Amino acid sequence: MRVYIPATVAMLRGLSSDGELTAIGGTAFALTPALRESYASGGDEELEYAAMLDAARASLRLLHAELEADPDTIVRRAVVSADVDGAALRPDLDYAVVKLAGPVPLKVVAAIHLDTAEAQDAVRAAVAVVDAADLGDPDAEFTLGDAEDHELAWYAPQELPFVLELL
Predict the structure, then answer these.
(1) 47 close to 39: Cβ distance less than 8 angstroms
(2) Please, which pLDDT band fits residue 92 given cuts at 50, 70 and 90?
């Protein structure tokens, strides 16, 4: 199953150095039957993109925690896509949520998705309001939309050390 794991730059550094990534709470996102049923139309590619966007939004929450601990944290959403076995469906949490069986080795990573430098201000603002947006605050939703308007850049797994070096 292709999963989309929310991450941060710090987590990407760990993936690069340790050769594996442990998803926070084992949580990832995927094109699940519940996600497919929640859309009136859309092909696999569109629905996988929706799952990746869910992971990118979850990355904002991870960034919030990192920023509280270190205000100098690099503020970019990150998503790791990987092909894993044993992911358990969790429609009780949300349509696209899956729980991973354990750490994800670098060898099964398909791609790294990361915000560019141009997105950092919008992402920083979104980090501060993501919970309010989820609760329906229209101003927070607008701010979150500004961050989500920035497309995540795509990198091959073997590019990860070079990408991290350039940050």
Answers:
(1) yes
(2) confident
